[in-house]
Amino acid sequence: MVRDGRSKVVRDHRAGTVRSVDAERPAVLSCQVAAAQRVGNLVVVVDRNGGQNDGLVADVSPQPRLAARFAAFGFDVAEADGHDVLALRALLACDRSDRDRPLAIIADTVKGKGLRPVEGKAPSHYVTIDAARAASWKRTVR
């Protein structure tokens, strides 16, 4: 959600991203304001990768019924495979100029997808990638 210095909702911004763990923080308040103000051209992409810096979301701060929660805030909701670029592109390309409900796209992803040493592992938040490691990993990408 974008606001100007006077806390008015700025209506000409098209998309923003919210990490799944942020769905419990102040970003949610901004989303609620966007829905209340009927900012229908706003698209929020929630990266639901199941991880956060101190463990799995399910273990640290579970988020049951995330889609239903956004719908309750007044959003249209779409769920997608966050690794399917064509599906995401199609959702983002939809004309929302006549809508009065913002759209939340919940994109299910796997952190580090395709990179076996870090795929789906919480410690990948802090991995250091030097040149040698990067070169090695590039050879293993599936």
TrEMBL record:
The keyword Zinc-finger does not apply. The keyword Amino-acid biosynthesis does not apply. One of its GO terms (molecular function) is magnesium ion binding. Pfam families: Transketolase_N (PF00456). Residues 29-138 form the Transketolase N-terminal domain. Keywords: Thiamine pyrophosphate. Belongs to the transketolase family. This is Transketolase N-terminal domain-containing protein. It comes from Streptomyces montanisoli. The lineage of its organism: Bacteria, Bacillati, Actinomycetota, Actinomycetes, Kitasatosporales.
